[in-house]
Every structure is written in structure tokens, then in C-alpha cells.
Amino acid sequence: MLRKLLKYDLKYMIKNMCIFYILSVFFAITTRILFEIEQSVIIKIIGQISVGCMFAMLANILINTMMRSWIRFNSSLYKDESYLTHTLPVTKNDIYNSKLIQTFIFFFIGFIVIIISLFIAYYSKENWQAITNIVKNITIGLNMNTLFFITMFLLVVFLEIFNAIQCGFYGIVLGNRKNNAKIGYSVLFGFILYLVSQTIVLALMFIYGLFDSSVMGLFQTSTVSIDANAFKVLLVLASLLYVVIIYCMSMLCKRTLNKGVNVE
Questions:
Q1: How far apart are CA 210 and CA 73, in angstroms?
Q2: Whole-number Å distance between alpha carbons of 31 and 193
Q3: Range 108-138 burial, b when 16+ CB lie within 10 A, else e
Q4: 49-72: string of b/e by CB count within 10 Å (b at 16+)?
């Protein structure tokens, strides 16, 4: 049954997100074309408009993935659609898992579309060489493998934003347990949960630093030099902590859901 729930959730997201994917790639292509042809005042102006539209679509991909995921979660569990949802022979755990998997899939797709759009708009041997030189300078300075650095950096960013989305889910669950101002409480609880999760990550990294002086040095030093091994540990530790927090929060959210749902 989880598969069927996920199918409907994916259809909903495809219908709402597809336009942003298409427009981001479209404006990336127009940007590339306008940058390649002979430049005049009009072409430069149109080119900058195209760039602005492309970046607006890229921002909308991330923002709308988050917003649509929250809207879908709220409408499926607490609005008119919830009357059908709660009559289905599925557990609340399955409902939650479907929303979480759907969010993960489209968040990942959004990252891929953003990378493809930027590649289409800006790729050239010179630009690629400039980027690789910058990354190599950073990784050489940190004495770190380039692939490891890029992978871990993107993973930490991905997990941090995904954690924020799940904080929003839990905030919606808690907010809808109130009798009044449910939207306001949902936003408030989601924001508080996000701050708490970030504080926990920092606190646990600090506690780890008590047993690893190199990591503690990152909290204490104000110099430009960074211990390469400590930075590696910090990236891996942050990733693991976010995974644990996401898992634990999902368990807490399911537990709260299973206590009962107040449908409007």
C-alpha cells in the first residue's frame, strides 16, 4: 500500500514541479545562446534577463519543493483530502513514509536539475578550469581528496535542508494538535524544532571535540589555518548526526501521529 500512496504523492509533485524544471532548463539554454552570439546592448540586456529568470527558477525549485511537500503533507492528513486518506487501509507510518520518500526523491531531482541548468548555461573549458582550480586550491590547502570534499560538502548541505523539511513536517503535526491558529503554531513549532536540531548537532560536535583536541581546535581558534584531519572528521560527523536526527525525528513524528489526528 505504501507503493500506491507514493505513486499519488509523486504524481502530485510532478504536476506542480515539472514547470519549474522545464523553465530552469529553458532559461539555461537561452542564457547559453545569448552569451554565445555577438554582444550588443540589447543582447546583453536580454541575456541578463535570461540569467535572472534562470536563477529565479533554480531558487523556486528548492523553495517549492519544500513548500509543496509541506502543503501536500498538511492537506493529506488534516484538510478535506484527509477524509479519504484516513479511510484507506494504511497505517499512519505508511502515510508519513510516503511523504518523506516523496520529498527525498524530488529534493534529489531538484539538485540534479540545478546542476544541469548551471552546466548548460556556463560550461566552457575556461570556466571548468577556473572552477577546478578553485576547488583544487581549497582541497590542497586542506590536504583533502577533491572528490571526498565535494561529495561531503554537498551531502551536508543536502541533509541540512532535508532536516529542515522534516522539522516542518513535525511542526505541522504538533501545530494541528492545537485547537486554534494551527498554521501559526505549525510554523512556530517547525522553526523551534529546526533550531533545536541545529543546536544538538553543534553541541554533539562540541562534545566530540572534548575527546579530540584537533576538532576542539576548530571551535577555539580564530586563525585562518584549519587542521585538515579535523575538518574531515567534522564533515563526516555532521553527516552522521544529521542522518541520526532525521531518523529520530521521523520516529517521534510517527509516534505523535499514531496518538490520533484532528481533522478539520
A1: 40
A2: 40
A3: ebbbebbeebbebbeeeeeeeeeeeeeeeee
A4: ebbebbbebbebbeebbbebbbeb
Place of cell 478539520: 264
Query: Quick check: helix, strand or coil at residue 167?
Result: helix
- SS3 helix, strand, coil % of the chain, rounded to 5? 85, 0, 15
Q: How many CA atoms lie within 13 A of 132 on its CB side?
A: 8
Contacts of 143-148 spanning 24+ positions with Cβ under 8 A: 143/228, 144/228, 144/231, 144/232, 148/232
Scored b (16 or more CB within 10 A) or e, 140-154 reads eebebeeeebeebee
Q: Which cell goes with 39?
A: 554582444
Tens digit of pLDDT for each residue in 120-129? 888 877 777 7
Q: Cell numbers at residue 211, please?
A: 575527546
DSSP 3-state assignment of 254?
helix
The conformation of residue 157, written as its DSSP 8-state character, comes to H
- Report d(CA 253, CA 170) in Å as an integer: 6
Q: What's 256's DSSP letter?
A: H
Please give the single-letter amino acid code of residue 51.
Answer: V
Longest CA–CA separation in the chain, Å: 65
Query: How many whole angstroms separate alpha carbon 191 and alpha carbon 168?
Result: 7
Give the C-alpha separation, 154 to 72, whole Å. Answer: 26
Please name the residue that has the C-alpha cell 499514531: 258
Reported as a single tens digit per residue, the pLDDT across 54-94 is 999 999 998 998 888 888 888 888 877 776 776 777 788 88
Residue pointed to by grid coordinates 505549525: 186
pTM of the model: 0.81
d(Cα 251, Cα 168) in Å, to the nearest integer? 14
Provide DSSP, 10-55. HHHHHHHHHHHHHHHHHHHHHHHHHHHSPP-HHHHHHHHHHHHHHH
